[in-house]
Design a protein that fits this description.
Chain A: It is a multi-pass membrane protein. The complex is a heterodimer of chains A (196) and B (216). Chain A is mainly α. Chain A has one domain. Chain A has ten helices and no strands. In chain A, helix 4 runs parallel beside helix 8. Chain A is globular. The N and C termini of chain A lie close together (10 Å). Chain B is an all-alpha fold and 216 residues long. Chain B has one domain. In chain B, 72% of the residues lie in helices and 2% in strands. Chain B has a two-stranded antiparallel ribbon. The chains are: A mainly alpha (196), B mainly alpha (216). Chains A and B meet through helix 2, helix 3, helix 5, helix 8 and helix 10 of A and helix 3, helix 5, helix 10 and helix 11 of B.
């Protein structure tokens, strides 16, 4: 994995190995929050921001603290603490200095702490042994990919709001079917870049 | 002492009536990724039963000592501890499986179901029922995983647990092994379960789902 161009990783993590559509990460909030375009956009931005930040911090912590002390097995606990602390910190800073942003993003920040995608990206980064630049590209790309997917989904869900969906499929059922179709469409991107 | 009827009640609630995946659409992040093979799903399910039951037990034992406002953090740390145990055991005794499951073992931490049970059941109940509730929830989850994996592996590879069950005339549906197959399979399962067991009461369910959904 050492010689992949970071730009390729960026594109790949947005399209070909999208966090939701090919790795199933972050599904819970994806299904729960994708009802309106505006909230989806807010959550997507918050996820992208937090993903970028936590990937950088977790990379540094893993390579400069855990490996030198042979504590790799503690990475789950350390990563989740980093994520929780980062989210808390961002929330406080945004609330103090950017109140307008806080009102649009703030409510989503607590939701993000246990979003599977955040922890997932950090774990993938370790498993695939990315370099620092690659890890940053991967974090940003995964966040943008997540944003793209939830935005598209909320758009579709607003369109089909009044459509006659079979009773048993209403709500999560139809959302999953749409996600499946989206995943199918995204497979079409897989010719662009070949990694994973 | 806990009565047999109560135990029975906990199990039917968790496995059928209140199944976390069907009823609340929780914890599907880690559910779907491992369901292309039945063996992977089974191992994942066993890991989940272990983590859910023991973290419920632990949370329930120390529930009166945890300050209310940091309980989420404490629960997360307890869960992470058990997940690390699962990860280390898998790495030591079953390295091929550990590699196949990849990051999804670690992602048990962010599985909303475990946190949900700690928050809604273990926080208000004594240790033994909490432990049983954890096992029951985990088993309910495993059954769903195995059902999805059954169809995906059968249609996608023509095998079950790695054994060839259909003849060579079977054209493998590669589609079922790919991610979209998992989404469609789960949607169909939810459809079937909603049609067979009509939703008890929309309003009664939503607060619990919203509460746990808020965590995740």
């Amino acid at each position: 994995m050492a010689d992949i161009n970071p730009f390729v990783i960026l594109i790949a993590s947005i399209f070909t190995s999208n966090m939701i559509l090919s790795n199933f990460l972050g599904m819970c909030s994806f299904i729960a929050v994708s009802k309106e375009i505006k909230t989806s956009l807010g959550l997507g931005q918050a996820v992208t921001f937090v993903l970028t930040g936590t990937t950088i911090i977790n990379y540094l912590v893993y390579h400069y603290v855990l490996i030198p002390f042979n504590l790799e097995y503690l990475r789950f606990i350390v990563f989740i603490i980093t994520i929780a602390a980062f989210v808390q910190l961002v929330e406080m800073i945004v609330e103090r200095y950017l109140p307008t942003l806080y009102y649009s993003l703030g409510i989503f920040l607590p939701l993000i702490t246990v979003n599977c995608a955040i922890l997932g990206v950090s774990l993938f980064m370790v498993i695939r042994s990315y370099s620092f630049i690659q890890a940053v590209a991967f974090g940003v790309g995964s966040g943008l990919g997540w944003l793209l997917a939830i935005l598209a989904m909320s758009g579709i869900r607003q369109k089909i709001k009044n459509s006659p969906v079979p009773k048993g499929l209403q709500g999560p059922g139809i959302t999953l079917i749409i996600t499946g179709l989206m995943a199918l469409a995204f497979i079409g991107f897989s010719g662009i870049v070949k990694i994973q | 002492m806990i009565k047999l009827k109560e135990v029975n009640n906990i199990f039917t609630m968790a496995i059928f009536k209140d199944n976390p995946i069907f009823r609340q659409i929780l914890g599907i992040c880690s559910a779907l990724a491992v369901t292309n093979l039945m063996l992977n799903s089974l191992v994942m399910g066993i890991g989940l039963v272990f983590v859910t039951s023991f973290s419920s037990l632990t949370v329930s034992i120390i529930r009166s000592y945890i300050p209310k406002h940091i309980r989420m953090m404490v629960q997360t740390l307890i869960i992470s501890g058990y997940v690390i145990i699962v990860d280390i055991i898998l790495k030591a005794y079953y390295p091929t499986m550990s590699e196949a499951l990849g990051p999804y073992v670690g992602l048990i931490i962010t599985n909303c179901i475990i946190m949900g049970r700690c928050e809604s059941f273990a926080q208000n109940n004594s240790p033994l029922p909490s432990f049983l509730d954890g096992i029951a929830t985990g088993v309910g989850y495993t059954i769903v995983l195995l059902t999805i994996a059954f169809f995906r592996e059968l249609l996608g590879f023509g095998t079950l647990f790695g054994f060839q069950v259909v003849g060579s005339w079977w054209p493998n549906w590669i589609f079922m092994i790919m991610p979209p197959g998992a989404f469609f399979m789960l949607a169909i399962l939810i459809w079937v379960s909603n049609s067979l067991v009509p939703k008890p009461d929309e309003d009664k369910l939503s607060p619990a789902a919203a509460k746990v959904g808020g965590v995740n």
